[in-house]
Design goal:
Blueprint (H helix, E strand, L loop, with lengths): L1 E10 L5 E4 L7 E4 L2 H21 L21 E8 L9
Antiparallel strand pairs: 1-2, 1-4, 2-3
Length: 92
């Protein structure tokens, strides 16, 4: 199953990048480069979604339309795709 959530990345004063998912509570990633921050955010989103799907009653948050997000100057918006392999009986 594929999930695609928008993430917002910002360059920090130290020159690194930090990103977060407006729709996934306390989920984000950071790195020395934008690519590294995106990779870390993708891993965090994978963990977040996998944990939510393991709940008795998973409640996936709705996906924000990127056009509805308020961005600050210099923000970088990326849609992050997470592929979760569901195994037989996962919802039992």
């Amino acid at each position: 199953m594929k999930f695609i959530y928008p993430a917002i990345f910002r360059k920090t004063e130290q020159g690194t990048y930090k990103g977060y998912f407006p729709d996934l509570a306390d989920c984000g990633g950071e790195g020395d480069t934008l690519d590294e921050a995106i990779e870390n955010a993708n891993a965090a989103a994978y963990d977040w979604i996998t944990l939510e799907l393991s709940e008795d009653i998973p409640e996936m948050p709705p996906i924000s339309d990127p056009e509805d997000l308020e961005l600050s100057e210099g923000d970088i918006l990326r849609n992050i795709s997470v592929n979760i392999r569901l195994y037989e009986g996962w919802d039992e």
